[in-house]
C-alpha cells in the first residue's frame, strides 16, 4: 500500500510502499484512511522522543479519519463501512495514519458525524483533544481570565473557541495577521508576539495560562495570579511559585472527548481551518509543519 513515513535508520521522511497491516486482533479495527493530520509532534515519532511503537519501514501519523474495513473479536461499537476518526498512540500495527490503511484500537475511535467530512475530521483529533484536556485540567470558570500563547496555531485556535464558549475571557498571543481571525473565534484580546515586550502590554492577574508557544512559559508565569494555574504543551513548565500550580501536559487518546469535539465541529460551533494535500506531498507537508511554515493552518494528507 502507498504510505509516507520512514524506512529505517536514516530517518528521512519519504514516500513508501508498505505491506498491508495485519488483520485486526481482539478489540482492534482496520481503517481505510481517507485523511490524516500532520502536526509538529510527528517529528517526535521519528526516533526523537515519542515512542508510539513504530516498526520501520512505517508510516508516520497518529490521527486521521476513514472507513472501517474489518473488526476484530469483541468489537461491538463499530461495523464494516462505519466512518470513524481517531488519535492513536501507541500504534498497535507498528505503522501510522499516513497510509492507505491503518490498524487501531476500537476504543480509541469515535464515530464520525454525518455532517463532518474526512478532511475536517482528520484535522481534529490531536489538536482538539490537546486543547480540551488542557482546559479541563486548568479548569477556568466563567468570567475568569485565560492567557494562551500561540493562539493562532491549530491547537490555540481550538482552545480559544472552547474557552470562549464557556464564558472565559481569553487573551492570546499571535501574529498581527491573525488578530481578526482570533477575535472572530472568541478571543477578547490578541497580542502580537513579535513584540519582545509583549508581556508588559497585557494586564496581568490571569487565572490560568496555556503555553503552546515554545519558550513563553517563563514570560507567562509572572502574568498569572497567586494561586493560579499554568499548563505547558511544550515540556517547559516552570517551577511552581506563588502558589501557582505548573505542569506539562501530553495528549492522550480519548474516544468520548473526541465524540464531543466531532459533534461540535459537525454543528459548526467549533471551526477548523484544514489545508488538504495529497499523500504524495507528504514529505513536503511534513517539512512545512516542523519548520513552522504552515501559516496557522492544519495540514491534512488525503488519499487522492
Describe this structure in words.
By secondary structure, the chain is α/β, with parallel strands linked by helices. The protein has helices at residues 42-45, 118-122, 125-138, 154-165, 179-185, 217-220, 255-267, 282-290, and strands spanning 2-6, 14-17, 28-37, 58-59, 63-71, 83-87, 101-105, 109-111, 145-149, 169-174, 189-192, 206-211, 224-232, 245-248, 274-278, 298-302. It is built from 8 helices and 16 strands. Residues 8-300 form the Enoyl reductase (ER) domain. InterPro entries: ADH-like_N, ER, GroES-like_sf, Lipid_raft_assoc_Zn_ADH, NAD(P)-bd_dom_sf. This is NADP-dependent oxidoreductase. One of its GO terms (molecular function) is oxidoreductase activity.
List the helices and strands and how they pair.
Blueprint: E1 2-6, E2 14-17, E3 28-37, H1 42-45, E4 58-59, E5 63-71, E6 83-87, E7 101-105, E8 109-111, H2 118-122, H3 125-138, E9 145-149, H4 154-165, E10 169-174, H5 179-185, E11 189-192, E12 206-211, H6 217-220, E13 224-232, E14 245-248, H7 255-267, E15 274-278, H8 282-290, E16 298-302
Parallel strand pairs: 9-10, 9-12, 10-11, 12-13, 13-14, 15-16
Antiparallel strand pairs: 1-2, 1-4, 3-5, 3-7, 3-16, 5-6, 6-8
Helix pairs in contact: 3-4
Q: Name the shape in a single word.
A: globular
Structural class category: alpha/beta
Residue-averaged pLDDT = 95
Give the termini separation: 14 Å
Mind telling me the C-alpha Rg?
Answer: 19 Å
Strand content: 25-35%
Number of helices: 8
Q: What series of H and E elements makes up the topology?
A: EEEHEEEEEHHEHEHEEHEEHEHE
Biggest sheet descriptor: 7 strands, mixed
Give helix % range: 10-25%
Number of strands: 16
InterPro entries: ADH-like_N, ER, GroES-like_sf, Lipid_raft_assoc_Zn_ADH, NAD(P)-bd_dom_sf
Enzyme class: oxidoreductase
Protein name: NADP-dependent oxidoreductase
Pfam family, one: ADH_zinc_N_2
Amino acid at each position: 500500500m502507498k504510505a509516507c513515513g520512514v524506512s529505517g535508520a536514516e530517518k528521512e521522511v519519504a514516500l513508501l510502499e508498505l505491506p498491508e497491516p495485519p488483520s485486526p486482533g481482539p478489540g482492534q479495527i482496520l481503517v481505510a484512511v481517507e485523511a490524516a493530520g500532520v502536526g509538529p509532534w510527528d517529528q517526535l515519532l521519528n526516533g526523537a522522543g515519542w515512542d508510539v511503537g513504530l516498526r520501520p519501514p512505517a508510516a508516520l501519523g497518529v490521527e486521521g479519519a476513514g472507513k472501517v474495513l474489518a473488526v476484530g473479536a469483541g468489537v461491538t461499537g463499530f461495523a464494516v463501512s462505519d466512518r470513524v476518526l481517531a488519535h492513536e498512540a501507541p500504534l498497535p500495527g507498528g505503522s501510522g495514519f499516513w497510509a492507505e490503511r491503518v490498524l487501531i484500537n476500537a476504543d480509541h475511535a469515535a464515530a464520525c458525524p454525518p455532517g463532518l467530512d474526512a478532511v475536517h475530521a482528520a484535522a481534529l483529533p490531536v489538536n482538539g483533544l490537546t486543547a480540551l484536556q488542557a482546559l479541563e485540567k486548568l479548569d477556568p470558570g466563567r468570567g475568569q481570565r485565560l492567557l494562551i500563547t500561540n493562539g493562532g496555531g491549530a491547537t490555540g485556535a481550538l482552545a480559544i473557541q472552547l474557552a470562549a464558549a464557556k464564558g472565559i475571557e481569553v487573551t492570546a498571543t499571535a501574529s498581527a495577521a491573525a488578530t481578526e481571525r482570533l477575535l472572530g473565534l472568541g478571543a477578547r484580546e490578541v497580542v502580537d508576539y513579535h513584540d519582545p515586550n509583549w508581556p508588559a502590554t497585557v494586564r496581568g492577574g490571569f487565572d490560568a495560562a496555556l503555553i503552546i508557544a515554545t519558550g513563553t512559559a517563563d514570560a507567562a508565569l509572572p502574568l498569572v495570579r497567586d494561586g493560579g494555574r499554568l499548563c505547558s504543551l511544550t515540556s517547559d513548565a516552570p517551577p511552581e511559585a506563588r502558589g501557582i500550580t505548573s505542569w506539562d501536559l501530553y495528549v492522550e487518546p480519548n474516544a468520548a472527548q473526541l465524540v464531543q469535539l466531532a459533534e461540535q465541529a459537525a454543528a459548526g460551533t467549533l471551526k477548523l481551518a484544514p489545508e488538504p494535500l495529497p499523500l504524495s506531498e507528504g514529505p513536503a507537508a511534513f517539512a512545512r509543519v516542523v519548520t513552522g511554515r504552515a501559516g496557522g493552518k492544519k495540514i491534512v494528507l488525503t488519499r487522492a
